[in-house]
Amino acid sequence: MQKHALIILSGLTLGALAVFLVLMGNPGNYGVCIACMLRDITGALGLHRAPVVQYLRPEIIGLSLGATLTALATREFRTTGGSSPLIRFSLGFVGMIGMLVFLGCPVRTVLRLAGGDLNAGVGLVGLIIGIVTGTMFLKKGFSLGRATKISPANGIIFPLFILGLLAAALITPSFIFASKTGPGSLHAPLFLSLGAGAVIGVLAQRSRLCMAGGIRDAIFFKDYHLLYGFLAVFIAALAGNLLVGTFKLGFVGQPLAHTDGLWNFLGMLLAGLTAVLLGGCPLRQLVAASEGNTDAAVTVLGLIAGAAFAHNFGLAAGPKGVPPAGQVAVILGLLFTLGMGIAVCKFKVGGEVKNEKSRGCQGTVVS
Fold it and tell me: Which residues form a coiled coil (predicted)?
């Protein structure tokens, strides 16, 4: 049990802070959602103009800076890259579309379920099947290549970008957009959100918390270590919701959710599949990018681009359901991802890549 103490502590802390952030002003069942928060930041920067989802979410800023400072303090900040960046960008792009059709990332899937949202249960089934499918590609030899050490100058660009977001959040210049209504207008106080994000970032960096990696490792290695973290997220969030009276069991009337089961399922199937092929869910990608991994940073840029595209072209879901364009986009995203998995298995790139269970689920090693 001592071996699993850190991952369990990380999960319990994330789940508890998620409930607390909702009490302090974040939208319901949305204390922490990497995909949704990146989407809101994308809108705040004007990369999409959906007026209800624009806000520089401090949780993302704090999480990234917490992970960076922890990696520097523990000498784990290493600048690596060069592992199929264009494929990573593309998979991040289509994965984000799947998550915005479902309305949440793997972290929010667990938090929604802990709040009683049964639609998230449908999404969780899709997520698991997507991860299982991705694991089948891994067993067939899927690899995005070997990351290598590169100039340290590359590794500081992403943290500098995050510092720029921090400055913008503190100064609030006129060119930064902020929602007056809708989810983007609902948020906890700035410094509280920054602090909560930093705590999560420190713990996620040390524990390698990753839900997609947890399910993958359970299938691939029969190792359930990472899954303990997300069981802890669920337990802490469920207990918190029951304690403060925000638990509501059912499909209808859930915050920032829709009841279209097919697209909840397919959206998260796409998210799970891309996460495994990328080597980690959005939370792990954000932490790895903050540790100097430029492949993960490219993936985060793909997530941001996917969010901008989804809202600029009307693909994202809303409380009323999924627009036809979003449904088409998910199907195309699944076809693209499956095709990419087959192509990469057939035409190996960069040699064989070993999976690093103990390092999380980034999926590459430094040569």
Answer: none
- Total number of domains constituting the chain: 1
DSSP conformation letters of 37-94 = HHHHHHHHTTSS--TTS----HHHHHHHHHHHHHHHHTT----EE-S-HHHHHHHHHH
> What domain range includes position 298?
2-346
pLDDT value of residue 3? 75
Per-residue confidence (pLDDT) for residue 366, from 0 to 100 = 31
Does residue 53 belong to any structural domain of this protein?
A: yes
Helices then strands (H, E): number in the chain?
A: 15, 2
DSSP state for residue 183 in the 8-state scheme = G
Determine the average pLDDT of the residues in 117-137.
97
Angstrom CA distances, 147 to 63, 80, 312, stand at: 24, 6, 33
Q: Are 25 and 186 in contact (CB under 8 A)?
A: yes
Is residue 105 within 8 A of residue 281, CB to CB? The reply is yes
Cα–Cα distance for residue pair 337/96, rounded to 1 Å: 13
Select from 75, 77, 36 the least CA-distant residue to 57.
36
Q: Is residue 61 part of a domain?
A: yes
Burial 35-48 (b: 16+ CB within 10 A, else e): bbbbbbbbbbbebb
pLDDT of residue 349: 52
Task: Note whether residue 17 is domain-resident.
Answer: yes
Per-residue pLDDT tens over the stretch 6-65: 999 999 999 999 999 999 999 999 999 999 999 999 999 999 999 999 999 999 999 999
Picking from 98, 84, 126, 60, the residue whose alpha carbon sits closest to that of residue 261 is 126
Is position 260 within any domain? yes
Q: Does residue 108 sit in helix, strand or coil?
A: helix
Closest CA to 346 of 205, 143, 191, 174: 143
Position 361 confidence tier, pLDDT thresholds 50, 70, 90: very low
Q: DSSP letter at 27?
A: P
